[in-house]
């Protein structure tokens, strides 16, 4: 019961600060008073609860919510920040990776997801760089999604 009280207290304090700062109308603070800040507050509450209780299951929602909040702040603030599936998958895979490092379970899948997200983020850049170097990739390169499906099916039916 105490752990729920701590989590709720962090949420209430964070939201209270958010809405108090919104009413003060300070120019420096106004740049952070968008809805993504609320995601950051909730994610931070999950992470603080994890550090307090050492409950590894709280890492994933904490990283996802905090990461999405930071991501959407960057999208709103910086024109160069990518807003695509690769970044969101990177945030989720980072949460899975940190959770698997603490719980010592699911490291292979989280690493695969992490490298897939890196590939998705830099896919266009790598392909254009290879094209400028005169390296053309064969049609087999476009079959990588089917490779993912095959690996997933193998993992699904593989015995421990």
Fold and architecture overview:
There is one protein chain. The chain has 160 residues and is an all-alpha fold. Helix content is 78%, strand content 0%. It is built from seven helices and no strands. It has helices at 2-24, 27-30, 35-53, 59-77, 85-103, 107-132, 144-157.
Per DSSP E runs of 2 or more residues, the count of β-strands stands at 0
So what's the overall shape?
flat
- Count of helices? 7
Q: What is the H/E order?
A: HHHHHHH
| Low-pLDDT sequence parts | none
How much strand content do the residues show? under 5%
Class of secondary structure makeup:
mainly alpha
- Percent of residues in helices: over 70%
What average pLDDT do the residues reach?
81
Q: Distance between the terminal alpha carbons, to the nearest Å?
A: 36 Å
Query: Main beta sheet, described?
Result: none
Radius of gyration (Å): 20 Å
